[in-house]
Write a structure and sequence with these properties.
about 375 residues; alpha/beta; Aspartate Aminotransferase, domain 2; Aspartate Aminotransferase, domain 1; 2 domains; three-stranded antiparallel sheet; 13 helices; 12 strands; about 40% helix; iron-sulfur cluster binding; Cysteine desulfurase; PyrdxlP-dep_Trfase_small
């Protein structure tokens, strides 16, 4: 299959798989304390090496890195954990309207527990309304959660400006960077982010592992009981092979991948605009992730396009993977001011280092045939 759904998940790099398999065969004990056995201590050392390596890549200390079982659980731990631990300071939380479902559903759940939530809007390209954010801050605001980049349209937020506004009020800032790191370089030693979420399976690492940076001094309440793992922040044994795989994914990353992906994205965009009529870009080519391109094909439904492409051996999605089980219009596109019709006509192409221009050429040929066929029967164009 030609796979253009890499924003949902990427194919693990073979070197990542090899490293994990070797580790699983040789280091199968759980990470142990000094009161345990040699193999457990060796595993603990390997995990600490991975923790310190990832921390160094981010410009922080190893004791500020928490391993979870997914990016979703990292977001839950950051938001719920901070809210519950600091509710005596206030009960107001701010998030943008285009956050990932793991953030939106988390703050929605907190609202049922007595917290107040304000949602900040975005402009037509998906950039957070800075003035609206500034006005939303209250005396009882304790947490702001804004994504680094959007998972559907790829828009990269001005986190430095957002952080400045939030931190001058003494408020904690959580950034969901699950789709953004390492496509967007982040040096946490030079920015004012308090918590940051990373998801290795988005950049050729394994599933079943999330990474949460928690700056020293940021108090979280433990959400899962039954153990003292991860500095007593979360219970349950660490997914040790996945942690090793995450470290390897970081090791393998280079700016050359970013450059290659951006070149592919521009190539795809130009081919679509040249070969197919009535195609609209959702978001922006500038200040956007190098591997995500979201477009609307006017007058037809994205679900039909995706199904027809699948028959041709091409995998795409109409939006976030977490929403793909229903037929609702994208909350991201609606928040950007798109109509329901245009939102339903959207397709997200998310590219990989394994994709080629030849695959794009084939895809555009098939896509042109599909779009023309669907428009012939579109009720929006008088078809039947």
């Amino acid at each position: 299959m030609i796979y253009f759904d890499n924003a949902s998940s990427t194919k693990p790099d073979p070197a990542v798989v090899d490293e994990m398999c070797e580790f699983t065969s040789e280091y199968y004990a759980i990470p142990s304390s000094i009161f345990s056995h040699t193999l457990g201590l060796q595993v603990a050392d390997k995990i600490q090496e991975a923790r310190d390596y990832i921390a160094h890549k981010l410009g922080v200390s190893g004791n500020e890195i928490i391993f979870t079982s997914s990016g979703t659980k990292a977001n839950n731990l950051a938001i719920k954990g901070y809210a519950f631990a600091n509710k005596d300071k206030g009960k107001h939380i701010i998030a943008s309207k285009i956050e990932h479902i793991s953030v939106l559903e988390t703050v929605k759940k907190l609202a049922l527990s007595g917290f107040n939530v304000s949602y900040v809007g975005v402009d037509e390209k998906g950039f957070v309304d800075i003035d609206e954010l500034r006005k939303a801050i209250r005396n009882d605001t304790i947490l702001v959660s804004i994504q680094l980049a959007n998972h559907e349209v790829g828009t990269i937020q001005n986190i430095e400006e957002i952080a400045k506004i939030v931190k001058e009020k003494g408020i904690i800032l959580h950034v969901d960077a699950a789709i953004a790191v390492p496509y967007v370089p982040v040096d946490l030693s030079k920015c004012q982010i308090d918590m940051l979420t990373i998801s290795p399976h988005k950049f050729y690492g394994p599933k079943g592992i999330g990474i949460l940076f928690v700056r020293n001094g940021t108090k979280l309440e433990k959400l899962i009981d039954g153990g003292f793992n991860e500095f007593n922040i979360r219970a349950g044994h660490e997914n040790t092979p996945a942690i090793i795989g995450a470290k390897k994914a970081f090791e393998l990353w280079s700016e050359n991948i970013t450059d290659y992906l951006r070149d592919l994205k521009v190539y795809l965009y130009e081919k679509l605009m040249h070969e197919i009529s009535d195609v609209q870009l959702n978001g922006t080519l500038d200040n956007s992730l190098p591997h995500i391109l979201n477009v609307t094909f006017k007058y037809i439904e994205g679900e039909s396009i995706a199904l027809r492409l699948d028959f041709e051996g091409i995998g795409v999605t109409t939006g976030s993977a977490c929403y793909s089980r229903n037929l609702q219009a994208s909350h991201v596109l609606l928040s950007m001011g798109k109509s329901h019709e245009d939102s339903h006509g959207s397709i997200r192409f998310s590219l990989s280092k394994y994709n080629t221009k030849e695959e794009i050429d084939y895809t555009v040929v098939k896509l042109k045939e599909i779009v023309e066929d669907l428009r012939r029967i579109s009720p929006l164009l008088g078809g039947n």
